[in-house]
Amino acid sequence: MKESMSYKIVVDSCTDLPKEYHSDPRFEIVPLVLQVGDLNILDDETFDQLDYIKKVAECETCAKSACPSPDRYKKAYETDADDVYVVTLSSKLSGSYNSALIGKDIYHEDIGPKNIHVFDSLSACCGQTNVAFKIMEYAEAGLPFEEVIKKVEEYRDGMDTYFVLDSLDTLRKNGRLTGMKAIVASTLNIKPVCYAVEGTIAQWGQGIGMRKALIKMAELAAERIKNPEEKTLMITHINCYERAEVVKDLILSKVNFKDTLIVDGAGVATTYAGDGGIVVTC
Fold it and tell me: Is 2 contained in some domain?
């Protein structure tokens, strides 16, 4: 058992892992706290997406999130596994990365040496999943700790993240759009096509209506992708599986990937992407 469990992957709950990995002993999800008005909701296996969407819609104030404490991360590092790899939300969007680093320092001070590496995903949602699965691939292949880190960071640096949302209000009100001009044309049904640049959010283009924006996003992803045959196309959807299937088909009509995966958004993704949101990484 020790051989197969020589590594552990710790992720924050913005990482949209497929359900079968929630009970996989190689993974541990460290939950963020979602705040809707006076309600604090833990983003864990008890998260009810449809109920949450309803609560957010009914709340007069903007939903937000709070990152896990360093102690919560430290607890996740207390494992028999030799190597611990950690994947967090982009450090430009959340304090989760810094919290994970502080948790590592506390572990070393209180318990002693251990191989722990915290990856800043420079992304979110399925982008974090893409990084986590690449860690799993290399760790399962038996690569040494330092080699896994090097290869995964190279993969992350070559990964692109795109998204189209019905509304950017929550991101804007929570100060997550600092690198992007405000979108004021919502009355014209203009949907921005956004992407991640070094972990921050920027706008690439826009479409009038959701379908045109999704087509533009698919074209952009297909144009910019390098070595798709070595990559997995991942799509996070918020309560809109059919929309995710359309995006997948649009992209696959232009390029072939090693694999594709559509995942449900967990609580953090639901908070910021909102009902009907689509996030793509490749």
Answer: no
Q: pTM of this prediction?
A: 0.91
Structure tokens, 29:
């999800």
pLDDT in tens, 31-62: 999 999 999 999 999 999 999 999 988 888 88
Average pLDDT of the segment spanning 246-267: 96
String of DSSP letters for 7-61 = EEEEEETTS---GGGTT-TTEEEE--EEEETTEEEE-STT--HHHHHHHHHH-SS
Tell me the CATH number at 203. Answer: 3.30.1180.10
Residue 87 domain-assigned (yes or no) = yes
Which domain covers residue 228, as residue numbers? Answer: 161-281
CA angle 115, 120, 123 (to 5 degrees): 145
CA distance 260 to 121: 19
